[in-house]
Write a structure and sequence with these properties.
single chain; alpha/beta; Rossmann fold; 8-stranded mixed β-sheet; 10 helices
């Protein structure tokens, strides 16, 4: 673990970000603050070095982020935020580095959020976005990774063409938050908490059983899905979900590539200043465009 990564963890502890997820009430306060601020949009620096095109997909705001030169592939990215929070600068920093490293065009939709939208509306939007973009790769972080896996299952069930690859960063795959490993991981995680996450999952599920695979895709069938790359940190409560997914894939003979960050926090590949994050982004870029030199 690098010095910078250790410092990032210390800063999170000092700012007490985890308190936002310490209760349902605090989570609702965080959602209200998020709605007042709105989404972060592509930065001026990104617009100077990349081609940024805003458009509408299925009634929602979206951006295509492309290299200045020829594009090597197309990817669709679903951001994290516990299904209740909008785009932030760290999502854009990840996308910017990935486009530079891979040469791919990445489409970033501002998908509907709970509690204003329920899971079925979000998943329907994800499928509509996929149908329009026709990406080679679908990726997401945290809740966006859960949406990515649920989308792949929906595409398979509808007998639609699948993407070549799924990339799941710190995936949230079980909103019930009942894994017995969570108590131990909660003591290590400086960012997410169980009570707030349970409430976010409840808002997303609305009146549906949170174990429904459309909401918690870990409970769904994994057969017939594309190859997956999973990135997870051991100081993240969602590491429990990643471990369960790996065990399921091993039991069922499904190909899964695994990148584990020892002592790394939730969503660590998004903190692009970290050497561990830069290495992870190079790994992702090499999977998005296989001919890219992964050095």
């Amino acid at each position: 673990m690098s010095v910078l990564a250790r410092l990032a963890e210390i800063v999170l502890k000092l700012t007490a970000f985890k308190r936002n997820f310490s209760s349902a009430e605090r989570l609702h306060a965080l959602i209200a603050k998020d709605r007042r601020h709105g989404p972060v949009t592509p930065s001026a620096s990104m617009r100077r070095t990349l081609v940024v095109t805003e458009r509408t997909i299925a009634g929602c705001q979206a951006w295509d982020i492309a290299p200045r030169g020829p594009s090597t592939a197309r990817a669709l990215y679903f951001h994290g935020g516990s299904y209740v929070l909008d785009l932030i600068k760290y999502h854009w920093q990840l996308v910017e580095r990935l486009v530079h490293e891979s040469g791919a065009t990445i489409t970033v939709p501002r998908y509907p959020l709970a509690p204003e939208a329920a899971h079925h509306e979000v998943l329907a939007f994800a499928e509509a976005a996929y149908d329009e973009v026709r990406p080679d790769v679908v990726l997401g972080d945290s809740a966006g990774a859960g949406l990515t896996l649920a989308l792949a299952q929906a595409l398979r069930d509808a007998q639609k063409a699948q993407p070549r690859l799924l990339i799941l960063l710190s995936p949230w795959l079980d909103v019930t938050m009942t894994d017995p490993k969570l108590a131990e991981l909660d003591l290590l995680d400086p960012m997410l908490g169980i009570p707030g996450s349970v409430e976010a999952g409840r808002l997303y599920a609305r009146h549906t059983d949170p174990r429904d695979p459309r909401i918690s895709p870990l409970f769904g069938n994994l057969h017939g899905l594309p190859r997956m790359l999973v990135l997870t940190g051991t100081h993240d409560i969602l590491h429990a979900d990643a471990l369960q997914l790996r065990a399921r894939c091993q039991e069922e003979g499904i190909t899964l590539d695994w990148l584990e960050g020892a002592d790394m926090i939730h969503d660590w590949p998004l903190v692009v200043a970290l050497p561990e994050a830069r290495a992870a982004i190079r790994t992702m870029a090499a999977r998005i465009v296989p001919r890219v030199d992964p050095r």
